[in-house]
Each structure stands twice: as structure tokens, then as C-alpha cells.
């Protein structure tokens, strides 16, 4: 038989779909042509204008029937004679959502039940030259899940329907505390026809880089079917030139090429802010004995050493939990990522790039792919590689007591193997975590959870998923990659519960959830690595008006529509708790949006500011990372996101951006009460102590001037002092501790303290501002704000314009003080007048 080079082509034309059995929206036997492939049912019905937009008003509840119906997709595709003559022909399904039966020319070729699994189906004997019919029938994932649950058991969970725990589908589809219930269904990833005599079925590139940064590269590849052949393997530089390579490598069923590259021969990959992101390519070509090319593949790689360091600390209990890249310890300031749309087939590489570019432009260097969504598209990780974003990747288990019966475990094992293989070559992916908060669920429901037990199988306990997280997943990760495995997020290890603040990573939800601490307590709530924390804030008023859909009667904070677009339990009480503790505010919608945004901005900036202070140099990395929950939304909603669904940054995005600059300055003021007579409670002295520190994320020390100016908001008094300082490299540095300037000691609670605002700046030799921060007395509700004047400090400035069209602002939620002008760039004003909001502007 003549040699046939492996070919692959998409099966993406001529698709139609129908509602099996028909209904009001899609009639029986009515086949609708799809607009774009791959796709899902909601997307197509929206394109056809047959259903209302579930992102508007209460429409979410008018489309629930879609997730409980059965659907069918079909197409016809032609096969050329030369394709049919190949020794092998496969149909490849990258992803089916979720319970699907596939027929080719009337013959069943596949039953699928896991959204996260790809399927390769040999169809040589079923395929024919000429026209072929492909049909995919989808059952209701919701109804199937309920049926499976009946066969097994109902399990504990947070968020969504309990049947989701038995279904390997994006868990957020079932509804979450920030997202709607929208049960997608359909062929959500591409389908290909591949023909070949022999193909490269797997590429496993392992790059081991020890402390001396010499790179040892193993390129392993597998042929299907086993074929006597020769291979060439080439590693190319980012500019396309050859770095190193090998030829005439003998292959039967597999082959291997080994290379050793000394430090300096290759260009290393670094996170953004620490170096470049050179992406190399490994190219493999397989030829038969007559030198006919059978297959060729290329895979992008990069050279970097990545470690998770859990060392004992010098002078605190516990251990570090930090990321080290190429021997450089990195403070990870970043965000959590949820799926960026309820309808993932609408996500494009451009949309992914816009989101990830926002992250980098916000001075963030890490993103955590949360375990209730999906293993993201290849484009997502490619862009993270390119931009230097570190990726914390969860496996897709979230907030539940998952089962571990045999069929479930088998499906999970295939899912894990496929996705580890898909992600392992990305330099951005530095950790794989077993789940999101499942150990916390076990703790809260008091399930069987002996952290000292490192040997049991766990499947027969009431927390059977420990078998997945402590047996199955780590074995898969170890076998198929060199990526660090972490059992969960959060997970402390060392026999400690997930709430322990001295080991592992921490989800710190005692601001908002839990004990509902004041945000001013972030310093005492710190953990070694805070992988979740957050505060809600309304989105841009244009986003609010979008989901209102023009319904002006619902345009107030407590309306039914507003409530439907905030899915958090008890959000009314929690929002008001933090608002009323800190602000004088009204319920007029524009003001309510403003005050929740300022509250969110202050809360989150405070966390980053205080936790960067805890990064004190090697052996004293008391907090090594902070990942805000969350950067994005999957629909228009009020949530913890710092950027809304339409990529409109909230003010918190900008305050975080400022706190993650290479150089920052921070301050706290705390009252100290002393009693000279230990038997008396009536005689005391209250002093206000000011502390100032700076941070430096660069790898060189920085000489600068600290300038501290204090203002009395209600008089002309000011005070300024300066100090030459040196900021230690990759560390925070304590700069000052003493009395708050201008604040007298008090001996009576009836003495009202002065309203002293302290402005601190870091200046380089040229006078350029490296970092600034203004510290105000809190709570803000006690402040009597004077009339707007450039001669007085101003708090919480947010800019906007009239009209629906967006403006791109360079900064928001700034504080202004006399003598320190700030410039805010803007794009898209188009002559419109700028509106200004600030605390005490008279519209509260």
C-alpha cells in the first residue's frame, strides 16, 4: 500500500440540530442549521432569536427546559478516495457536553459521558468514500445525573444540585453563588477526521532543570500503530533557528531523543516582571524506510525550573508555601479565574487575550483556574505562556463530597490523564491541585477525615473522594508530568486542617463569609499563601442597565431583578454590614454602585498591601501570595469579580494594580490604650501609632526617599518629613514606627480625634514617584468631609461620563492630596463631560 502522510481535517460544515420530540420553540422533526461550529444549544437558539437572553432580567428561569430536553445534531461530510485508502481512519471528538451517543452511517460508534474527555474512534470499517452521515444524540445531563444519583447516593455539597457530583460536567452550569443555572448541551469542542498509515500519538517532553540550571531534555514520542521508521527531532529557538537536534532516530512503537543544554545556551522563561518569555518549539518528523513522511508534529516548550517551596520559617511557626522559578522566589499577586462565559463556545482567543492582558496590565503574575469550571482552552494556556502568567490549575472538582465508585473513578482517570498530557508542556502551569474546597466540605459536615492517615484506600469511607485526591490524581500527575501536585485548594498538609494559617494555602473568607471580620483585620487573617479572599462590589452602571433590559421600575438595589443578578447567599445582609460599618450611603442606584465599588476597592487593596508586607526575604516569607476571588464573571452580575462580564474594570482592579507595582509604600495606624492604674478603667491614655513600610519586587536593592506629609482635614495644619531609605530586593522593608503626626494623646473617649490624613510617597533620585499611598482615619462614616477643594485631601475619586459608550480609564478610586498631582489617562471621551464622584461629595 502506498505511504499516506497523516492528515487531519475538521468536520465543521453543514451541521443541524433539533429538539428530540419537539416542543414550542423547536417543532418536532424541525432541523435548524447551526451558525457556527462547535456550538451548544443555547447559543444557537439565541442566534435564531427563539429564546430570550438569559442574561437579562429573570429570563434565566425561562430557558431551564433546554437543560432537561434531549437534542440531536447531525451533518454529512464527504470522504475522498485517497482518505478512504489510508490504513487507518479515526473520528476525533475533542469534547462532547455531556451524555452523547454517536452514530456514523447509522452505526453506533461511541457513547460519551464526560465533558472533559476527548474520544478517538476508529472508523475505517464504517467510513465510506463519498457522503457519510454523522449523528450525535444528547441526553439531558441534569436528568441523567438525577438518575445516577438514585442508583448510588445523595452527597453533601455547597452550590448547585447534588446530582452534579455524579456528572463529569462543568459544575458551574448547575448554578453557583455568582452564576446562573444554565445547563449547556452540545458538541462544544471541534471534531476531526484523521487518516494515516502511522501517526505520532503522544509527545512527552520532560525538561529537568536542577539548581545549576543545566537543562536535561527528554523528548519521548509514540507511534500508532507500531511502525518501523526513522525520526528527526529538532528544538528551535523563538526566532526559528535551530538550537539543537537529532536525526535518524530509530523508531518502532516509540522513540526518544535526549539533549543537555548548559545555562546560557538556552534562554530561560520567567514570570512577567522577572525576565522574558522565550517560547521554543520541538519539531518531530517520522519517515518510513523509503523516507516517505508519515507524520510530523510540533509542540511549544520553554525552559524554566519551577518549585513549590515548603521550608521551615526562621522565627514563626509553620512552613513557607511559595513558588520559585529559576531559583528566584516569587511573590504571587494574582486572581482566581472562573469560566468567562456561561456559553463557552462563544469564547475566542481574542477574548481570552483581552482578559489575560488585563491581568498583566494590572501588575498581576498568577491566575488560578478554579475547579468548578473547565480545563481551559489551549489558547488560554498559550497566552499565559506568552505573557508570563503563572497558572495554578485545579482539577475539576468543586465544593462537594464526590463519589468514588468504579465507573466514576475510571472516567476521572481518563480525564486526568488526558488533561495532564495536554497541559504538561506549558511553562506557565506550575501546580496542579486536586479540587476546590472539598476538604473544607468534609470538615464542615464532619466526614471521615483523619489527616494523619496516609495509607488507607478511603473508598469505603463517607469521604470516598480522598481516594481520588490522594491516590488516583497524584499517581497520574507523577506518571505523566513533572508538575507539582497539591491535594486541594485550600490544603495545609502536615496533619493540619484547611483553616490553619501557618501551612499550605488558605481560603480566607472570614471577611464576607465566616466570622465577617472587618477588612482592617487582613493582617491578622493572613496565611502562608492566600489563594482565595474577596469582597463584593457592583459592576459598572452600564452593566447593571444591561441586565435590567430597560425595566426602570426595577432600577433600585433591592428589586427582584437585582436580586436575581446577585447569587451570593445573604448578600443583602453582608453588603449592608460592611457598608453601614464604614460609610454614610444612600440606596439611589448610582450611589449604591459607587459605595459598593469603593468598599470593594478599599477592602482588596488593604489585603494586598498588608500581605505584601509579610514577604520579608528568604526564610521570612510569611505570606507568599494573594489571589483575589475573582477577576472575572460568566454573565452580567454583582459578584466578587474585579472586572465585570463585559471586561469593564471595577475600581478595585485599579487599587490592586497600584498595590502590586514593583515599588509600593504602605501604612497602618492603630490606637494603643494604656492604663496607668491597673485597678481603674476610667483613667487611660490613647496614643495613635503610625507604621510605614515599603516593598520592592525587583531583584536589586532600591535607594529612594520616603516623604511623609500629614494634613488636618479641618485646619491648615500640615507636617512633612523625609528620610533616605534603601528597599531590600525582593522583600518588604520596615521604614518607620512612631506617633501619628498631629494627633494628640487622648484621655477621654469623648475627645474626638483630629481627622489626620497621612500621605506617603517613595521618590527616586530624579523625584519620580515610585509609589504612593494615603492613609485615612476609619471608619469613613465618622468623617465630616469639607467642600471640594484642591487645598484639602480628597478620598475615593471615581470618574465617569454620560452615555452608554464605554471609556477606558487609566486609573480609578484614587486619593488626592495637595502638592501631589496625579494624571489619569483616558481613551474614548469623545468630547463628553467627565463626572466625578468622591467620598463626601454631597450625593451620598
From TrEMBL:
User: Top EC class per UniProt?
Assistant: hydrolase
Task: List the EC numbers from the record.
Answer: 3.2.1.25
Point out the coiled-coil segments of this chain: none
Q: What is this protein called?
A: beta-mannosidase
* One Pfam family matching this protein: Glyco_hydro_2_N2
Taking every annotated instance into account, which residue ranges of this chain make up the domain Mannosidase Ig/CBM-like? 689-782
Q: Which InterPro entries match?
A: Beta-gal/glucu_dom_sf, Beta-mannosidase-like_N2, Beta-mannosidase_GH2, Galactose-bd-like_sf, GH, Ig-like_fold, Mannosidase_ig
Which residue ranges does the record assign to the Beta-mannosidase-like galactose-binding domain? 15-189
* Reaction equation(s) it catalyzes: Hydrolysis of terminal, non-reducing beta-D-mannose residues in beta-D-mannosides
Keyword entries, A-Z: Glycosidase, Hydrolase
Write down the species: Somion occarium
The answer to keyword Hydrolase applying to this record is: yes
Q: Which pathway does this chain act in?
A: Glycan metabolism; N-glycan degradation
Determine the domain of life of the protein's source.
Answer: Eukaryota
Amino acid at each position: 500500500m502506498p505511504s499516506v502522510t497523516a492528515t487531519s481535517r475538521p468536520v465543521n460544515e453543514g451541521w443541524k440540530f433539533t429538539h428530540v420530540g419537539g416542543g414550542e420553540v423547536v417543532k418536532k422533526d424541525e432541523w435548524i442549521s447551526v451558525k457556527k461550529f462547535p456550538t451548544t444549544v443555547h447559543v444557537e437558539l439565541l442566534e435564531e432569536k427563539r429564546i430570550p437572553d438569559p442574561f437579562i432580567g429573570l429570563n434565566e428561569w425561562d430557558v431551564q427546559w433546554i437543560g432537561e430536553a434531549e437534542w440531536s445534531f447531525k451533518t454529512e461530510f464527504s470522504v475522498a478516495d485517497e482518505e478512504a485508502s489510508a490504513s487507518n481512519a479515526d473520528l476525533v471528538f475533542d469534547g462532547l457536553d455531556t451524555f452523547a451517543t454517536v452514530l456514523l452511517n447509522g452505526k453506533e460508534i461511541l457513547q460519551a459521558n464526560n465533558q472533559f474527555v476527548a474520544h478517538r474512534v476508529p472508523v475505517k470499517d464504517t467510513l465510506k468514500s463519498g457522503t457519510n452521515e454523522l449523528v450525535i444524540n444528547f441526553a439531558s445531563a441534569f436528568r441523567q445525573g438525577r438518575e445516577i444519583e438514585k442508583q448510588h447516593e445523595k452527597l453533601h455539597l455547597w452550590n448547585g444540585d447534588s446530582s452534579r457530583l455524579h456528572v463529569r460536567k462543568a459544575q458551574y452550569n448547575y448554578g453557583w453563588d455568582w452564576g446562573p443555572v444554565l445547563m449547556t448541551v452540545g458538541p462544544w469542542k471541534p471534531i476531526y477526521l484523521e487518516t494515516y498509515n502511522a501517526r505520532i500519538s503522544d509527545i512527552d517532553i520532560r525538561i529537568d532543570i536542577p539548581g545549576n540550571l543545566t537543562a536535561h531534555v527528554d523528548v519521548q514520542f509514540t507511534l500508532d500503530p507500531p511502525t518501523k521508521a526513522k525520526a528527526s527531532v529538532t528544538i528551535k529557538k523563538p526566532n526559528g533557528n535551530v538550537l539543537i537536534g537529532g536525526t535518524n532516530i530509530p523508531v518502532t512503537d516509540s522513540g526518544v531523543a535526549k539533549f543537555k543544554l548548559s545555562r546560557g545556551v538556552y534562554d530561560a522563561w520567567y514570570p512577567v516582571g522577572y525576565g522574558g518569555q522565550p517560547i521554543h518549539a520541538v519539531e518531530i518528523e517520522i519517515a518510513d524506510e523509503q523516507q516517505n513522511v508519515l507524520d510530523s508534529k510540533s509542540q511549544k516548550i520553554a525552559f524554566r525550573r519551577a518549585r513549590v517551596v515548603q521550608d521551615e520559617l526562621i522565627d514563626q511557626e509553620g512552613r513557607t508555601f511559595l513558588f520559585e522559578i529559576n531559583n528566584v522566589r516569587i511573590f504571587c499577586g494574582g486572581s482566581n479565574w472562573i469560566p468567562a462565559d456561561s456559553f463557552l463556545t462563544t469564547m475566542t482567543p481574542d477574548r481570552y487575550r483581552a482578559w489575560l492582558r488585563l491581568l498583566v496590565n494590572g501588575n498581576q503574575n498568577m491566575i488560578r483556574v478554579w475547579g468548578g469550571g473547565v480545563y481551559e482552552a489551549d489558547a488560554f494556556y498559550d497566552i499565559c505562556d506568552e505573557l508570563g502568567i503563572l497558572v495554578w490549575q485545579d482539577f475539576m472538582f468543586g465544593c462537594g463530597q464526590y463519589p468514588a465508585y468504579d465507573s466514576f473513578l475510571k472516567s476521572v482517570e481518563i480525564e486526568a490523564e488526558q488533561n495532564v498530557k495536554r497541559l504538561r508542556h506549558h511553562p506557565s502551569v506550575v501546580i496542579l491541585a486536586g479540587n476546590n474546597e472539598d476538604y473544607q466540605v468534609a470538615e464542615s459536615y464532619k466526614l471521615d477525615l483523619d489527616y494523619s492517615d496516609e495509607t488507607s484506600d478511603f473508598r469505603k469511607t463517607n469521604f470516598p473522594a480522598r481516594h481520588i485526591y490522594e491516590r488516583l490524581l497524584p499517581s497520574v500527575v507523577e506518571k505523566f508530568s513533572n508538575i507539582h501536585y497539591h491535594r486541594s485548594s485550600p490544603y495545609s498538609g502536615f496533619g493540619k486542617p484547611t483553616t490553619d494559617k501557618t501551612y499550605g494555602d488558605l481560603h480566607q473568607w472570614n471577611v464576607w463569609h465566616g466570622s465577617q471580620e472587618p477588612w482592617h483585620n487582613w493582617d491578622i487573617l493572613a496565611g502562608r499563601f492566600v489563594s482565595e479572599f474577596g469582597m463584593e462590589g457592583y459592576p459598572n452602571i452600564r452593566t447593571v442597565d444591561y441586565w435590567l433590559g430597560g425595566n426602570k421600575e426595577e432600577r433600585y438595589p433591592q428589586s427582584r431583578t437585582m436580586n436575581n443578578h446577585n447569587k451570593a447567599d445573604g448578600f443583602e445582609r453582608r453588603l449592608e454590614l460592611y457598608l453601614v460599618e464604614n460609610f454614610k450611603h444612600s440606596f439611589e442606584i448610582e450611589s449604591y454602585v459607587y459605595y459598593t465599588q469603593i468598599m470593594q476597592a478599599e477592602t482588596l487593596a488593604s489585603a494586598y498591601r498588608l500581605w505584601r508586607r509579610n514577604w520579608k526575604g528568604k526564610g521570612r516569607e510569611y505570606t507568599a501570595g494573594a489571589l483575589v476571588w475573582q477577576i472575572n464573571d460568566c454573565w452580567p452580575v454583582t459578584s466578587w469579580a474585579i472586572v465585570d462580564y463585559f471586561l469593564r474594570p471595577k475600581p478595585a482592579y485599579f487599587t490592586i494594580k497600584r498595590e502590586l507595582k514593583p515599588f509600593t509604600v504602605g501604612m497602618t495606624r492603630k490606637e494603643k490604650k494604656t492604663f496607668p492604674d491597673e485597678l481603674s478603667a476610667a483613667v487611660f491614655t490613647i496614643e495613635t501609632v503610625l507604621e510605614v513600610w515599603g516593598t520592592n519586587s525587583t531583584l536589586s536593592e532600591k535607594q529612594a526617599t520616603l516623604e511623609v506629609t500629614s494634613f488636618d482635614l479641618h485646619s491648615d495644619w500640615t507636617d512633612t518629613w523625609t528620610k533616605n531609605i534603601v528597599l531590600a530586593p525582593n522583600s518588604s522593608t520596615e521604614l518607620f514606627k512612631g506617633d501619628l503626626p498631629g494627633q494628640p494623646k487622648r484621655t477621654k473617649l469623648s475627645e474626638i480625634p483630629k481627622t489626620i490624613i497621612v500621605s506617603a510617597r517613595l521618590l527616586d533620585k530624579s523625584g519620580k514617584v515610585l509609589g504612593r499611598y494615603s492613609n485615612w482615619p476609619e471608619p469613613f462614616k465618622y468623617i465630616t468631609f469639607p467642600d471640594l477643594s484642591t487645598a484639602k485631601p480628597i478620598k475615593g475619586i471615581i470618574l465617569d461620563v454620560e452615555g452608554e459608550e464605554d471609556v477606558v480609564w487609566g486609573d480609578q478610586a484614587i486619593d488626592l492630596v495637595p502638592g501631589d498631582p496625579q494624571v489619569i489617562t483616558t481613551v474614548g471621551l469623545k468630547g463628553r463631560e467627565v463626572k466625578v464622584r468622591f467620598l463626601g461629595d454631597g450625593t451620598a
